[in-house]
Amino acid sequence: MNARFLSILMAACLAAGAAQTAEATIYAYHDPNPTGENQAGTFEDIWASYNDQSQTFSWKASFSEGQTGNIQNGHYPDGFWLVVSDGENPKSNVDEYAIFYADALNNKITSYVYDGVNSANSYQSSPFIKAWSNALTVTIVNDIKTFSFSLDVASVNSFLNTPDWDGAQFDDMIGIWFHPYVAGANGPQYDDDWHLTSLPIYKQGWYDRSNQYTTVVPEPATMLLFSGGLIGAAVRRRKRA
């Protein structure tokens, strides 16, 4: 990141932070050395945040190429599906959380009610919530492929009017069910309303976590770190009551 870009980014972040009221809390999670199943690229870095006032959910995950024995050389993930919770492993929890399908081949993100099933197929039988086009940022720098997004999930969080429904919210703790994939033949397919109709999978990896502590960071710092990948140097551990 060059100095000019950094100064512009910092100025923009400070301006955005000034527009926020003092009540906003941003909860952040960072794993700079993630371990998981590396069959669809090798995990290098995972970062997430949630702004409890704007209801903005941000995610960033970085990968190096899959290694021999896991996947053919030269392959990175083509996308992923993701569920986050307020602490527990989202898997097996029905109608509590949203599942996001991120597709870098078509630059689409779709969301559905997660049915708790340990597979890629929740979209086939679960209610569709919302889709975003061109909301996914994908970069390759120094042979590291990074996926990131920042979404307004207010409509996701209010989609079901039930006591157990959290949508995509988390605070002091986070649970994660994250599966990157290499797409199979023809890749993801959609109907005219951007509903997934097919998601062929050639290979998939996974990163599952439960009851992971988050940290609280100021919003300008959060946005800067999200863009620059420097969060490990700036976050402070939030003390639990």
End-to-end Cα distance, whole Å, is 38 Å
Would you tell me which CATH topology applies?
Immunoglobulin-like
| Biggest sheet layout | 7 strands, antiparallel
Q: Reading side by side through the largest sheet, how are the strands ordered?
A: 8-9-3-2-1-15-16
Give me the secondary-structure category: mainly beta
Mean pLDDT: 85
The CATH architecture designation is Sandwich
Which ranges are low-confidence, i.e. pLDDT below 50, for 5 or more consecutive residues? 1-12, 68-73, 230-241
Tell me the β content: 35-45%
Q: From N to C, what is the helix and strand string?
A: HEEEEEEHEEEHEEEEEEHE
Gyration radius over CA: 17 Å
Number of structural units classed as domains:
1
Oligomer: single chain
What is the β-strand count? 16
The global form is globular
Estimated helix fraction: 10-25%
The CATH class is identified as Mainly Beta
Q: How many helix segments?
A: 4
Task: Give me the secondary-structure topology.
Layout: H1 3-18, E1 26-31, E2 42-51, E3 56-64, E4 79-85, E5 98-103, E6 108-113, H2 122-125, E7 128-133, E8 137-141, E9 144-152, H3 154-157, E10 173-183, E11 189-190, E12 196-198, E13 201-204, E14 207-213, E15 215-217, H4 219-228, E16 236-237
Antiparallel strand pairs: 1-2, 1-15, 2-3, 3-9, 4-5, 4-10, 5-6, 6-7, 8-9, 10-13, 10-14, 11-12, 15-16
Question: What does this 3D model show about the protein?
Answer:
The model is unreliable at 1-12, 68-73 and 230-241 (pLDDT under 50). Helix content is 14%, strand content 40%. A hairpin with a 4-residue loop joins strand 2 and strand 3. It has 4 helices and 16 strands. The chain starts with a helix and ends with a strand. Helix 1 runs antiparallel to helix 4. It has helices spanning 3-18, 122-125, 154-157, 219-228, and strands at 26-31, 42-51, 56-64, 79-85, 98-103, 108-113, 128-133, 137-141, 144-152, 173-183, 189-190, 196-198, 201-204, 207-213, 215-217, 236-237.
